[in-house]
Amino acid sequence: MEEAEKKACLNKALARLGRGDLTARQMMAHLTEKRPGREPFSQEAAKETVRFLLQQGLLDDKRYLRLLLAKMDASLYGPRKIREELKKRKFSPALVERAFSRELDQAARAKTLLEKERKTGLAQTPEGRKKLCAFLVRKGYDYAAANAAIAALLRENPDWEEKEF
Known about the structure:
Elements lengths: L2 H15 L6 H9 L10 H14 L4 H14 L4 H10 L4 H7 L6 H12 L8 H13 L4 H14 L9
Helix pairs in contact: 1-3, 2-3, 7-9, 8-9
């Protein structure tokens, strides 16, 4: 491996980190995948660069995971959506499982999300409740949690139609 390749690889990695955090796996893929207009770096150069970045604290999967989970938690994503996002970002499965060691109360989180949607008035009709259920499923909640959240909202507003959805 040439010194010039190591330097170019490190510069490419630093430039990429300037645009946002990555996992170590994402960085390896970024450096070694062939892209239009550039040749990939050798596995050896990429591994050495990733190792250096980890030692310097510039790549830190645990820190990145905490930041990402906090952001997704604030957006009230459900567990399925969070897992999909973490898998897409190439976090190690062991790290993801440790992050999910705490149990999320899906129904309560979904209800909190529905509180924001209350202004739309969708929960007042069966068709609207179907739309809200689909919205919650897209946000990563399972059907049981979505239905429980909608049912809780209906219990708080008895004047709304209580037809099945």
